[in-house]
Fold this protein.
Amino acid sequence: MKKLRFQFGLVIGLCLSLLCACTIPINIDSFESSDRYLREQLLPNIIVDSQLVSDTTSYTVVIPPVADSVPDPNTFPLYGAKPSSDSNIVYVEIYSSAEKANGEREDEHWLVDVAEKFNQQRQKLPSGQVIQVGIRNIPSGLGAQILAARKGKPAGYTPATAMWLELLKAEGLSLQAIAPALVPNQAIFAIQPQAYKELAQGGEVTFDRLMDAILSGKIQVGYSNPYIASSALNFLHTLLWRSAGHAQDGKPLTIAELNEPQVTSAFSSFQKQISLTTPTYLDLKQIWLRDSQKFQAIVMAYQSYVNLKKQPEFAKLAYIPFGNPENSPLVGFDWNSASKQAALKQFASFATSAPMQELAKQQGYEQTEYLKRSKFPPIPSGEVLKAVQSFWKQRKDGGRTVYMELIVDTSGSMENDNRLKAVQEALRFASKQINRGNQIGLITFSDRPVRRIALAPFNELEQKRLFAAIDQLQPDGNTALYDGLAVGLADLMEKRKTDPNGRFYALLLTDGQSTKGIEFAQIQDVIKHSGVRVYPIAYGEVNQEELEAIAAIREGSVYQGTPEKVQVLLKDLFQTNL
């Protein structure tokens, strides 16, 4: 009996030891140890199905024309007044850049405050009609896309920089000038004090000196998508304009100059120093707030920099200005009635009044010495700016291959509200943003992970394979979220062994909490040392805390998705990273 008890106890002890070994990461402090733990401890306990799309099936796929898609403006927050059917009210809606129209953040809501104060006054037109203003918070580039597609017809549009107005002119829109500037602002590099101190050792810190340091590999930066973010577009143009030699002669950049060796070389050198690219600079700012050591410098707006310096860990932050002013011009459109046009002008007069400009100062807007000077790069035409954006998209990877694993929830809840159908359509549309040669894989998860597309260089056949795999997706089962993530990480880490200079991303889309399989605690150290940046997309009732923790491990952000917004969200993420 004693012997049986001893043997039973030995078995129980062995089982407990094995259980601990499988659930508690031990000494995971490198890529090698995380890879070993993943393959020896986690993957053997995960059942993975394979439904890879064959070449034969892929060849038969016909890719239908995928119409360009832009966001629905009504999915963006609206502050101030709401539309009214009252004939005694003239309602004007204004699309505004995000840094001055976010009613949820204290340092980003100047124009919302202005609109609310204006609405309270109930100012009237000569006709006796009361003017009421609504402010729609839409990033400048997305606002321009909506307007260019004629998907929204607001009364006014106030992007951060006039460059977006040039792009709209190139799309054939007739713009009616209301105010050349609502509020003073400028694009800058915000720089950590130690990096600034090193720059200052050689004399006065100028934009040229900063660029020389970046291009020579001494400073790494955070950057954002120039199809969306004003400061990013402003910098991209400034870099190319400067590289073409126009800082000396003051001439405008031309499309032909984008192919000159000194221009392509400077851009390639800059891209090598990018540590992270996000859709907007506000995303970068939030990542920096979470960890002040993530970047040596980021491209952002001066007003946001002023507010960032209020945080103790950023009190000694320095800045260097560049490019064109970002003074928030306001324009109307030829679809406006005379009364709406007059209402816009009356609102602009109120916004530029002394009390409202004083309010702007309190939120970080300032007429700096840089803005007082008159020597800026000439604002390029819309055609040149379109070429500049395309130049960035095609060359941004800098010769490095991007590997992205799409890890998509297909659990039963994805049937609700057409969630999965919206994701399928979004993936088809976003595939247009993938640069040839970058590698895309697709893994889905419900009760267990399913490999559907192996990582392979993207081309026409792989796009057909992606469409075929998307068509096969059906919602069913539980949510083995971290099993799916583990399989995706394993595939990406295998690629990293043969291409250590590549860029590795996992896009993790889920509409629920993990209900089956391994847990977050078992995989978090693997994520940390994998070399893979994970982009969690919260698509429903999720464990927000865990998704935030996943994003924080690899300097990312959690993106909020809905069936209405997921197409634009995936487009932006693919455009930025692929």
Notes: The chain has three domains: 25-60+397-577, 74-184+327-365, 186-325+389-394.
